[in-house]
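Hi support team,

I'm opening this ticket because the web form for multi-chain structure prediction keeps timing out on my end. I have pasted the exact lines I submitted so you can reproduce it. The total is 254 residues across two entries, so I didn't expect it to be a heavy job. Is there a limit I'm missing, or should I split the entries? Thanks in advance, R.K.
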Amino acid sequence: MEQIPVLKLGEFLLVSIQVELHDELVVSLQDDLSARLEKTRARGVLIDISALEIVDSFIGRTLGHIAAMARIMDAATVLVGMRPAVAITLVELGMTLKGIRTALDVDKGMALLRASLDDSGAFSSSP
Amino acid sequence: MEQIPVLKLGEFLLVSIQVELHDELVVSLQDDLSARLEKTRARGVLIDISALEIVDSFIGRTLGHIAAMARIMDAATVLVGMRPAVAITLVELGMTLKGIRTALDVDKGMALLRASLDDSGAFSSSP
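Hello R.K., no limit was hit. The queue was backed up. Here is the completed structure from your submission:
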């Protein structure tokens, strides 16, 4: 069952990360996600990490890479569902998740994506 | 990381099953889901099994129980993302997933839920 499904939700894609990420899984997720972005022409990606109790530097970097890849394919990425303890740890570790926007849950993430798509064709970094 | 997140998508809840289900996990999922149904007053539950390569009789029964529980809490359940190989195996095993509606993907499942809510006169607040 080592595969992370990419679900299409209207004009966006949703990735719910529930299992421990390792190199191979990350590569397959990036492959999958880029293929789905091409196929569905989605304009946004929501990555749900509500199941993750720990976000270490590897996961943080991986999320950054995924967001960068999505951006090149003209899609914005929003990280949703982060647990409070994870947020505290990230700050303590000095990880700022630069280039990734966050929202409290999927609904808020979708609203954020819609708002930024409405504002302009491009996804600006200002809040 | 042994927890299956329940995500709120507008008026529905989404459960993406990616890990092997065992008794304890099923119980915690049912607890979570019923609590979320009560809290969010969601009218529908989408269960995504696109990550599952095998659906055995235990999983089939579990899905049936979840759907029955949701029904008692006034929510419809739609199973989405079933792989073709899984469908073939279910038929060969004689498992009909009675009482569970299915759809090919999350988008179609949401459309199905919306249509059934519109049909029923009980829920008349949305067009």
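A quick check on our side: The mean pLDDT of chain A is 89. Let us know if the file doesn't open in your viewer.
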